[in-house]
């Protein structure tokens, strides 16, 4: 098996509601994967199953090098959405405790904990009680404790969604470094974060896999040529927009507040014809853009469609 | 060092930081020391408090030293078990509800090690508190009331420690099975009361019930040891093991937030 | 000498340890209260409860008043 983790028809039902309805995917070693979807899509449930906190009601999870029935925990580093520590411990005590639980010797645990606290920028606060930590500090401590045993797969649930812009930036920068060293899977509902960091995406909706693949591949396969036209607010131009019917090259026509948006099949043809038409009819163009659909457009379409 | 040991040390550290390691023994000691002192001064207290005419001599049978220790154990049976329940009602459920347990149990450790560490930490604190308090009571009893048969006193302590272990184990199991700490304390104490009530109402039918344990402990001190003493002790140990097994069984299957 | 007369000299060595233990319990509770970042209910109220309610006061604080982080 080349995949580090393979999920086959993974299912979780709570009573009669299916939170995750048979999703299958592979996590390849060394890749950074985003589990993307709107709130309530089943991201957290999926992640909790991967981390072994929930028992799947159906399907199979297999980890490379782990026999069925054996715990994969030594491969995994896990950070939940809102990490909860022992508030009475200091950051260092917690990191050392986590390392000891992962089987490190006392000396190893101390040096590993200190190195990681340094790395996540908590050295100065290491000897303070965790109960006094801010949300961003807890998230960073959470990363440190997830990394103490150099896990093969780091699983993070919405690692940045609860943070303010600064904390978000810090954690994203850390993740950017970490994905060089280990395989990362994180869930998010923010496409931008996935696009910035990840190689692969798994988009889920209502507990089902809506789209999966590498970001490049998805961009290429689903890329559409889009023309955006904004006009000045004069009556003649407005009238033109309302009556515009498009041509043979137009696949989709949307009227937007400032003008129109076209999804076209042949960009070259569209460019020539539309420019000619605009000049001929004397339309007061404010902005004309010949571009491509973004991942955002695709995401919105997949998620709402 | 084994995982169990690492978690156990964390549990003890938590007991220390939450002051339980201090206040539980202190309360047991206070209860234990008060009993012989109050018994000793009871005639004086009554004489001073009541409006008796001058020179009234209050005749009270002087209690035997064994009786005083038995009364101390009775105190521990009521107030002591309430304190044990309050001290451990959230042992697992609070960590589970807060999410702290999820972060620990995704580490490569076994869930039974996690639970057994909590259980042994509880036992250490309960046995330690009981012993300290009981030794205080013993010391004052021999000082003020009279000598106590050491063998009998130790046998009574061990039997009573087993009874508190039953209650403590019920408490830990309650905090595994139930999400609410109050519900766990309520159920554990309810079951303990049920055990001892049924045992005292049906002494012959339930001669081997672990609910006879407190009575057996007093029996050692009062010199009336029931025939079934050995069986009661075995039943108590078996019940503790069974409750613990049920807790581990549930723990292994528990879904975590 | 009447046996049932409370004599200070006889009483003190017996009762003193009892008070010392109580005092330690109260002090431990007050230290815990001072260190606690938040409590259930106002702190001044807990000071009164710990100091004036015999034995039960400190226990009540540890069980109810102290928030366990």
From TrEMBL, chain A:
Residue ranges annotated for the ABC transporter domain, each copy included: 5-231
PROSITE patterns: ABC_TRANSPORTER_1 (PS00211), ABC_TRANSPORTER_2 (PS50893)
InterPro entries linked: AAA+_ATPase, ABC_transporter-like_ATP-bd, ABC_transporter-like_CS, DrrA1/2-like_C, P-loop_NTPase
Highest taxon above the source species: Bacteria
Annotated transmembrane regions: none
Keyword field: ATP-binding, Nucleotide-binding, Transport
One Pfam family from the record: DrrA1-3_C
Family as reported in the entry's similarity comment: Belongs to the ABC transporter superfamily.
The name this protein goes by in its record: ABC transporter ATP-binding protein YxlF
Taxonomic source organism: Paenibacillus radicis
From TrEMBL, chain B:
Membrane-spanning parts: 21-42, 73-92, 113-141, 153-178, 185-208, 228-248
Keyword flag Protease: no
Pfam families: ABC2_membrane_2
Keyword Ligase belongs to the record: no
Superkingdom of this protein's organism: Bacteria
UniProt GO cellular component terms: plasma membrane
GO MF annotation list: ABC-type transporter activity
Keywords in alphabetical order: Membrane, Transmembrane, Transmembrane helix
Protein name: ABC transporter permease
Species for this entry: Paenibacillus radicis
Upper classification of the organism: Bacteria, Bacillati, Bacillota, Bacilli, Bacillales
From TrEMBL, chain C:
Subcellular location: Cell membrane
Entry's transmembrane regions: 12-33, 45-64
Keyword vocabulary terms for this entry: Cell membrane, Membrane, Transmembrane, Transmembrane helix
GO cellular component: plasma membrane
Protein name as catalogued: Negative regulatory protein YxlE
Residue ranges occupied by any Cardiolipin synthase N-terminal domain in the UniProt entry: 24-66
Membrane topology recorded in Swiss-Prot or TrEMBL: Multi-pass membrane protein
Superkingdom field: Bacteria
A Pfam family this chain is assigned to: PLDc_N
Native organism taxonomy: Bacteria, Bacillati, Bacillota, Bacilli, Bacillales
